[in-house]
Amino acid sequence: MIWVHAVSLGEVVAVTPLVQALHRRHPEHRIVVSTVTETGREAVEQRLAGVAEHCYAPLDFPWAVSRFIERLRPCLYLFAETELWPNLLWHLRRYGVPTVLVNGRLSTRSYTRQQWAPVRSFYRTMLQTLSLCLMQSDRDVDRIVALGAEASRVRRTGNIKFDQPIPTIREGAPTRADLGLQEGEQLFVAGSTHAGEEEILVGCYRALVARCPSAVLLLAPRHIERSESVEVMVRAKGLTVQRRSSLGQAGRLRSAGPRVLVLDSRGELAAIYREAVVAFVGGTLVPIGGHNLLEPAQWAKPVLFGPYTDHCAEIADLLIQAGGGRRVLQAEDLTQQVMALFSDNEERERMGRSARQVVEQNQGA
Prior knowledge:
It is a single chain. 42% of the residues are buried. The chain has two domains: 2-158, 3-Layer(aba) Sandwich (Rossmann fold), CATH 3.40.50.11720; 186-361, Rossmann fold, CATH 3.40.50.2000. The longest helix is centred in the first third of the chain and has 17 residues, at 9-25. It is globular and about 65 Å long. β12, α12 and β13 (303-305) form a beta-alpha-beta unit. The protein has 15 helices and 14 strands. By secondary structure, it is α/β, with parallel strands linked by helices.
């Protein structure tokens, strides 16, 4: 049995191509994917049905991980990004189970924190239990070796998020009609947003709609439990607002004219980017570190993001270099870029093609 750990939604999305490849090459092995969140469980069940089973990861107590390992009896443990649990790793080594870090990365914040002397020795001990560290970038390789991983066990493999299948229109995916969009309306999608960003995006939209009345803004909060507070904020700004859940199938409660849609459903954002004229990816105007810039790029959409991209630094740089993405530094810059792209079809298409080429040219991790 192969055990793959992916803490939540983003990690499940990242490891999906790897799990599918393992299933094809080693059909004799049962594959179990563990998560710690409900959104992670839903992603496993949606994306890996018939390929892998789901379970929740154990708490990192010695007795809990020992019983869990004895029950699963894995022959290999893979874990995504940098989800290091000391008791789990030490018990896996005791049971002789190889452990492999896949799609590994170390953000600047995490790397700085691990260099603190009392933590560094502990972290080094954990890293030395690992059989292999497969890292996203040269920066990540240098950082994990500096923190104590055996250099001979570290490889740069690239980012497996590039290996997501190029999306197709699937049955059940939300359509323009489902979003209540009228003919001729143009959608500005702001995905995975955080508090402090929605206010900026609404301000940008107010300026945009004065010049482009057919524009509609869709806000997709990273945490959908914030949907109500986002709705209240938009109404307080004097704008019409609708929640995705209130629209129902085929957008039964349609509106016309300038308005803001709040995406309060799980699992739809990646497909909704297809309907965007311009896309903004959140967690980048506030110091979060950024989310998945590749989701709109896969649909050949221009990708805008803020200055805080430490969690997706390499992807952000590649998009900028290729001309498929632009970094906006503040609210005024965002407004100018969005308005310029809405008024220039040719530039939007060129940026979109460049964004998609970045995805295609970096596959193979």
